[in-house]
Amino acid sequence: MSVTDDAIEAIKQMIVDGELRPGDRLPPEPDLAERLGLSRNSLREAVRALSLIHVLDVRRGDGTYVTSLEPALLMDAMGFVVDFHRDDTVLELLEARRIIEPATTEMAALKMPTADIEGLSALLDSLGERPTVDQLVENDLEFHRRIAAGSGNAMLASLVETLSGRTQRARTWRGLTQEGAVERTLAEHRAIVQALAARQADIARATATVHVAGVEQWLRQALIEPRGAEPR
Question: What is the C-alpha end-to-end distance of the chain, expressed in Å?
Answer without folding.
Answer: 35
